[in-house]
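As a warm-up, study this chain.
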Amino acid sequence: MACADGHWGLELSTHFAFQYALMALVAMAGFACLARPRGVGLAAVVLALHSSPLLGLTGAPEAPAVGASRKTRLLMANVRTSNANRRGLIDLVVAEQPDAVLLLEVSEAWLADLAPLDAEYPHRLAEPRGDNFGIALYSRRPLTDGQIVQLGDAGVPTIECGLEGAGLRLLLTHPVPPMGRRAAAERDRQLEAVARRARELGPRVVLAGDLNATPWSPIFSRVLRLGDLRDSREGFGLQPTWSAGLPLLARIPIDHVLVGAEVTVMGREVGRAIGSDHLPVLIDLR
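Now compare it with the structure written out below.
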């Protein structure tokens, strides 16, 4: 485990690879203006080290298979327990018309105020909590074999279910933030357990959530490997989601949708702000 074997603070530093690349690019320009070739060379090395992981997120998205079934649209959002702007989420759901709505940091008060969604999304799994680890899934389609489980030892819930007619198996999870050695180890153990469960569920699995890790974190690579998953961002760019109040170039991507080998990503985008410190993710799968 990355954080158990090393220092959790060093792992935190890996989350800002994009910002390091930007700073190196600015430094290169500055050294070039000052005619300092050694400085330009050093900055170029830093730029290469931190920009290479970003290259996999660029390029053309994958093409859909011929004769594939219709797409399934998911909306995932960490709504923030203390966020009083319930209308922001409801309006986004009405505008985007997803097949399923995947929510994190859901409290009893949040569920009560989301009652307007019940008519269009009558199928639901939820474990509301007041500690920022409540979780809920609303669906237009019936849910198959739905359950709320605890994976890892942090005592926080994970939703597992199928969407009838979609051929997908969903895992929705929210590990604790890695603020301290113990919390970082708990996060890693939960993510490893969820990844193993994803592999058991097969190549049509979708693992979604605020994973409290970026694509450059060692634990993220481990999740992809253990779960036989790939990052849905590939071909769609960085799409940073946290913190919503920061300028675009200062944000980092910690809200993820990872998919199995037989899931095609038709589209992926970051949604508009809904009052949370996280921006929502909209994704079309087939």
